[in-house]
Amino acid sequence: xxxxxxxxxxxxxxxxxxxxxxxxxxxxxxxxxxxxxxxxxxxxxxxxxxxxxxxxxxxxxxxxxxxxxxxxxxxxxxxxxxxxxxxxxxxxxxxxxxxxxxxxxxxxxxxxxxxxxxxxxxxxxxxxxxxxxxxxxxxxxxxxxxxxxxxxxxxxxxxxxxxxxxxxxxxxxxxxxxxxxxxxxxxxxxxxxxxxxxxxxxxxxxxxxxxxxxxxxxxxxxxxxxxxxxxxxxxxxxxxxxxxxxxxxxxxxxxxxxxxxxxxxxxxxxxxxxxxxxxxxxxxxxxxxxxxxxxxxxxxxx
Amino acid sequence: xxxxxxxxxxxxxxxxxxxxxxxxxxxxxxxxxxxxxxxxxxxxxxxxxxxxxxxxxxxxxxxxxxxxxxxxxxxxxxxxxxxxxxxxxxxxxxxxxxxxxxxxxxxxxxxxxxxxxxxxxxxxxxxxxxxxxxxxxxxxxxxxxxxxxxxxxxxxxxxxxxxxxxxxxxxxxxxxxxxxxxxxxxxxxxxxxxxxxxxxxxxxxxxxxxxxxxxxxxxxxxxxxxxxxxxxxxxxxxxxxxxxxxxx
Lengths: 302, 248
Description:
Strand order of the largest sheet of chain A: 1-2
CATH architecture of the largest domain in chain B: Sandwich
Strand content of chain A: 5-15%
Oligomer: heterodimer
Strand content of chain B: 35-45%
Number of strands of chain B: 12
Shape of chain A: globular
Strand order of the largest sheet of chain B: 2-12-11-4-7-8
Order of helices and strands of chain A: EEHHHHHEEHHHHHE
């Protein structure tokens, strides 16, 4: 069934879009990621203009984050105060990100920026995840874990403007969370992703937050940053396609439930290796496209 | 006596009768509505050749039909290798070019249309699309890109002509269509000259929910944005409710 998207102005098979939404939903259910990093490149692939793909992904992320955060709120695994601080930074970051996006759009470098961001960040995250999960598997096979984890005095504890985050059990400066928020907000606006895949490691390793509140808190703040990004894209660029977002969502929520069931049957380390390989695969594909001589040197529009 | 006079007249009028051939044509539809399940559209162009005298012999008649989409100013960019990666290095704004251009003919163009006539009437894409910029790489690239996307097409032999009198062809409008007026021209060609032409237009417009969403997105961007967020919020909430019920 072909459907004509009013803003993207292309006719696409509705089942393809449902399929993309569903597939990414399965992965996000399995691995607990938003999946924005997969949706945007897949949309490019089916012929959605890059600007529309980025803006609409942000809209789709709002829906999946709302759905996820509700479950976390029930379990009380959201640090609202930390979320608010991250959010403060995130909104500033989004606004900056949109400016960068529009500036590069005028210069004709949007594709390059988005692709480079993907290659760099997916590359780093995928690589780290792969190493970490291979180590985890080796550890599980070999001797029991060596030295016990000691609570380290991180450098972030020396900064001023300290705040108490009760849910996370932290008493740290507000500067690092704001900085993390700004950075992730910027990336989200440029890449059309929620930034969970950067936010989550940053919260654990930079802010030292306990793992159980990390995902809920990350999702909580992503709702608002992605919402703000959607709004800005809709207002300044008119590139949010509601019909496209709706189809992706519909597939996504169903897929997420299937993914959760699959995820329950697999081992955590196996899941992480699979996700790492998937991330690296997407990164490799995008990276190779930058390096090989394109068939057509000219391009039209945007 | 009378017969001879007519025969004589006919003899004088013979070169004129060619010009006395007129094209009468119609389209199966002059409005195309782009709704949610729009997937391209076939437009039938059909017509007849009206003439007062007999069909001239020994000179074949040909019909050429062109359809041009609404014009746009395009930015065309060129990639080059910088620091080992391919990036856009040059942008050129290129004048008004139709977003769609289709030429359908009864026979191969080179057999029926001399370059001079082509230039005069701007029939083929090469003569119609920025002919003053011929040879410029950006212009050639624009034509090539649109040809690859099947937006600029030449369909030789696709017009069927019966008894030098009735003709018809179908023009497939693409699914990634641009809104606006599509100009249709029909040319009658004999001995390398255009002996008559006829022009009409097709109006392509988004309708229904497509029209509504598009207008909202551009005219009330704030409300559109809020609506997009509301849909996402409600859907996200709804999904978690539904699946909680299922799990129970």
